[in-house]
Write a structure and sequence with these properties.
3-stranded mixed beta sheet, rod-shaped, 5 strands, 402 residues
Length: 402
């Protein structure tokens, strides 16, 4: 049986968990339909006065469907054995259908002779040959009608097993259902008297279950191959993402080191110049840009968390003037910063305003972008035991001065 199951227990469990919800819903629908049929069917005939056995014969089918519904719906721990419960229920249902043919046929034949054809029965009751012929004709027609109706209801078992797929228990179910149905039929004396109507229909039932087995095997193998390919691509994608992340981390670390080396070499070179020298300002700006790049490399993890939606705020006490100097260092722009110490997330705000200031320079005026960062205190809101400040951050340029 390993040929139809994954060798890996974990993989097999993942496969079962993937298809379990659909099978569970289909199983519950099957139970409800069977209960409805078995409860309504006895009262749809025009006959009255049937023996209690006629009605009690539907009880096993109702009990089987309700039992399966309770097992799979109320006891989640039993769902891992749902294939076994489905297979057992379909076999027992087939046996109950065979018994129903016996009880329904007996009751309907008696009703036809006594009520529907009562006058005819009185007329031919003295003629034994005619009476035997009448009983044989009615018995054969009634048995064929009831047998066809029960075989038609067996389509529900076909659909349920097709949804369950090919497994050891479902294979046994397909093999046993025709056998137990036939055995239940032959327990009836009326069926044995008209046994000629049974072989053709039972042969058709065997052929139908054989075709069902072939179809179940094909569908199950297709499902497993599809699951295997999906899992393979998921694993391959996970490995590729993890490898890319590791390579990106190494590259990030390498670039940060190179930029730190470059910034250090520029600082050593700047020691030879006076601050008033024009070259000093340009090289100092380059140093600040390298430091900004190193800060961006250190914030790589924050970028990953933001893109994945997993970022969590980390609030720290920060001097607004110090924070503003860090994000505006090396940039020819003006600032308007109040002298406040507030709780904020410097990493997140740094990412936001680095991008905002870069865009302000990029989309401002070509020669005079006139970029300005203004932080305004909009007023204090008293809350015990803390004081909350309402701040307004604004980045403007020549194109958008407001």
């Amino acid at each position: 049986w390993k040929g139809y199951r994954f060798h890996d227990t974990e993989k097999e469990q993942q496969f079962q968990n993937l298809y379990l919800p659909d099978l569970l819903r289909f199983c519950q629908v099957w139970c409800v339909i069977n209960v409805a049929f078995d409860m309504v069917q006895p009262f749809t005939t025009t006959a009255n006065g049937f023996s209690p056995a006629f009605y009690l014969a539907h009880v096993p089918g109702i009990a089987i469907a309700l039992g399966l519904l309770i097992i799979v719906s109320c006891f989640p721990s039993n769902r891992r054995h749902i294939l076994f419960w489905v297979s057992a229920a379909t076999v027992l249902t087939a046996a109950s259908r065979g018994l129903l043919v016996h009880f329904q046929s007996e009751a309907l034949i008696g009703y036809s002779l006594q009520d529907e054809l009562g006058e005819v029965t009185k007329e031919v009751s003295d003629n034994k040959a005619a009476m035997d012929q009448l009983e044989s004709f009615l018995g054969q027609r009634t048995i064929i009608s009831v047998l066809n109706a029960q075989l038609a209801q067996g389509v529900l078992n076909f659909l349920l097993l097709g949804c369950a797929g090919f497994a050891q228990s479902t294979l046994w179910s397909c093999v046993l259902q025709p056998l137990v149905f036939l055995a239940a039929l032959l327990m009836s004396p009326d069926i044995r008297m008209h046994v000629s109507v049974v072989p053709v229909r039972c042969a058709g039932m065997f052929i139908a279950y054989t075709l069902l087995l072939v179809r179940m095997r094909s569908d199950s193998l297709t499902r497993r191959r599809t699951f295997f390919l999906q899992r393979y691509f998921q694993v391959a994608l996970g490995k590729a993402v993890e490898s890319s992340r590791k390579a990106d981390s190494i590259l990030n670390h390498t670039l940060k080191n190179y930029m730190a080396d470059s910034a250090g070499e520029i600082d050593l070179f700047l020691d030879r110049f006076e601050k008033e020298d024009p070259m000093y300002a340009e090289l100092h700006g380059a140093t600040i840009s390298l430091q900004r790049g190193m800060r961006a490399c250190r914030q790589r993890q924050a970028y990953l968390q933001l893109t994945s939606g997993d970022y969590r705020l980390s609030l720290y006490p920060v001097e607004l003037e110090t924070f503003a100097k860090q994000i505006t260092a090396g940039r020819d722009m003006t600032t308007e910063i109040p002298c406040l110490r507030v709780l904020l997330d410097p990493t997140l705000l740094g990412l936001i305003f680095d991008n905002a200031i870069s865009n302000a320079f990029k989309h401002g005026h070509a020669d005079r972008p006139d970029v300005k960062l203004a932080i305004q205190n909009m007023g204090n809101v008293q809350e015990q035991p803390k004081q909350v400040a309402m701040l307004s951050f604004r980045v403007t340029n020549m194109a958008n001065p407001q």
